[in-house]
Amino acid sequence: MMSFTRDTYQALEDIVGSEYITQNPEVLDTYCFVWGTELMTNGDKFSTRPHAVIMPETVEEIQAIVRVCNRYNVKYKAFATGFEVVALTAAEPFLPIDLRRMNRIIEIDEKNRIAVVEPYVSQAELFVETIKKGLRPNVLGAGPSASILTGTAAHMGSGPQSISTDYGGRNLLGVEWVLPDGEILRLGSLGCDAGWINGDGPGISLRGALRGYGGANGGLGIFTKVATKLYPHYGPKKFEVGGRAPNYEMKIPEGFSMHVVAFPGIKQMKDFVHLIYEEAICFGLERPGMFLLAMAQTETNSELAQLMESMSKEDQETASFSLIIGLDASSEREMEYKKKLLGMIIDQTGGTDFPLGEKDEGILLNSMLTGQFMTRSAFRMTGSFALAAVGEESIDSSFDLVTKAYKGFLKDAMDSGKILKLDTESVWQIVYGDGVGHCESIIFYDPADLESTKKAVECLEKGDEMVAKWRLGINSLENALSYKESAQKAARPLLTHDFVKYIRKIKAAFDPNLLSESSFYVAGKEDG
User: Fold this and answer.
1) What is the pLDDT of residues 68-101, one digit of tens each?
2) Which of 65, 123, 338, 504 would suit a FRET pair with 99, their CA atoms being 20 to 30 Å apart?
């Protein structure tokens, strides 16, 4: 890899102007610190300092930047909001391409239920604009500030409304894509001058290569515009919001109803999810686990501790087997029907529909519509968290995976005192629109404590191994950072198909110079 020379800097500055590129050390250091870096760097909260930071505004500027990087052999990675470790952490310096100036909603097509956005459009912004037109987007659990484009084209895509909107990859339509060699590819109908309506066109589809299950995380070039599906919204054009941080609440409008349903055990909860999915009556469903549910009812950790102390072990177990359900309806009669059917399913599965006060119902509606519940709550307790044994399979298998992760390694790790101890499963679960279950086991660790961080990494390794043994693949692929490379090597022999080999072939075909930084995608060239 060539050094980042003055000539390289000047060539980039000529593209965007001096105002939008910098090597100021104070600025560069702000691009080294994101959620989860310490998990990949043996406890260091800062990753390596980048060469420079550049902020383009147009696809033509991005195309020119990528071509300069190819000319001078400089690794680069684009990012939108830079929320987590996959956006900015790497073992070697690279050029972060900050896309915050590309922040426009290009189009909201009401007739075809499509929104076209640039990378920095947030979930909150698109939600606010689309509900004015009776529509809503898929919203990730990452929260209101997360990028719509990222969750659709580049990274994961799971959220509390996924039972009605599916996950990110299923919402991807047309794409404007700057390839690693600087050429522009427009996928599907967009490439045929037929608009953004479809992500596929004549011949082999490239959507699987573009993102696959978890996304290429910046390792296959830069997406500058995407079209994403929209879904019906039966609420007002503007919600009334009250409360205060961290528990903002919405006034429950006509057409919405929130429920917390608890079950005697895991079997009854599984049966309920199957039935509620088959009847297609809810717009949102999530299992927050006892701990996150308790955090939703409190504003501080002290209040949380008091609430936990007041709960018996039986109450905590009951709360662990609970779900948040969101109903929406286009008429009073439809809502009456949905509530009646919900009650019948609850009775059939032995559940309990806990009465909610107006404030709690408003907090849960706000969280489900904006996606802020899980992430906001998870950060609050210890300062950071990690997700182990992330998997997607049948509804039953996703529940079983969480239980086995808790009993198999998480409980022992909690008993060690290095990560937060919980007496029940630590979990966030949802269901996709095609009936697939998505599960995440949550590890609350102290990012300022090296031993706590190491214990979290150990849990991540064991989680990857468990998911691989279940033939589900693993959440992130190999890279040169901390545990992931060794975890991937250990997991590959357990997989039915060595998918890493084929992803390496895709990477080599699209990026033969290996310049689109791919620490959280795949490392190296194809191996046969």
Assistant:
1) 999 999 999 999 999 888 899 888 999 999 999 9
2) 504
C-alpha to C-alpha distance for 435 and 432, rounded to whole angstroms: 5
For the whole model, what pTM was predicted?
0.94
What CATH number is attached to the domain comprising 433? Answer: 3.30.70
- Tokens matching residue 475: 């959440």
* 382 neighbors 418 (Cβ within 8 angstroms): no
Query: Which residue, among 383, 407, 371, 399, has the nearest Cα to 287 in the 3D structure?
Result: 399
Residue burial 336-363, b: 16+ Cβ < 10 Å; e: rest: eebbeebeebbeebebeeeebeeebbbb
Q: Would you call 495 exposed, middle or buried from its count of C-beta atoms within 10 A (0-12, 13-18, 19+)? A: middle
In a domain, 372, yes or no: yes
Are residue 308 and residue 271 in the same domain, yes or no? yes
| Alpha carbon distances (Å) from 526 to 499, 502, 514 | 11, 8, 11
Which pair of tokens denotes residue 126?
Answer: 């698109």
114, β-bridge pairs: 109, 229
For residues 110 and 208, state if they share a domain: yes
Q: Determine contact, residues 492/485, Cβ cutoff 8 Å.
A: no
Which pLDDT score is estimated for 500?
76
